[in-house]
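Question (not urgent): is this output format expected?
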Amino acid sequence: MPKGKGAKGTKVTLKIAKKAIRMTPDGRRRLTLSNMGITIFPKCLLKLTNVDELDLSRNQIQKLPDNIGNFSSLRWLDLHSNKLESVPESIGNLVGLTYLNLSNNRLTSVGLPSTLGFLTSLKSLNLGMNQLDTLPSTMVSLDSLQELGLFDNLFINLPEFLNALTNLTMVNMKRNPLMYAQGDGEGMLKEKSEPEENGYLVHESSLCRTCLKRCKDQRERIRTYPGLIVPNSVATINQDVWRIRKVEHETLK
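Got this back:
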């Protein structure tokens, strides 16, 4: 595929990018270039420093420019479903960023810079569907973080700093090879136990009134949820929905 061209041969120029900018309901300038077959980050985008939101998801981008931090006004950045193996250190300059989606890429722990800890305004961070087994310890500074997606990675242990993030209410660690310490006095790590047998996940809207009543009377066998929450612009085509522990806790009250 020619440099700077999309799946249909459309060259991503500054003019095209400007025409793709739309105002969001809350008055922000969003540039959407999703699913265009882009393989190389269009350098012309770096001239659009007044863009508040940037969506480059579902492309084939392998590398971000070292000066990605020049988007000083960015508040929302979606790069899910690309081929990224690392993130530039300059991403730490995006101190106003509140939403960052890097899910469904090829990121390794070595490719995550310590400067992620500078993004203290982040409220939602999605790192699911990568090849991560650790996170930068500097992320303990992300005091504003509320949602964290780490599903479909290689984590054996939970990141130690998670307990220090007081505003963190939603965490997805599904499908990781998590281990936990057995009380054998030696601190040995064992494989996490399998889900309880005869346990099913059922949405309340799928049940008739009789079945719903029966389920509520037998919660030890069937768990019901009033809603399964999916965050905006997460790769819903390629990844499972987020299971929110908070929702489960409130439902089982």
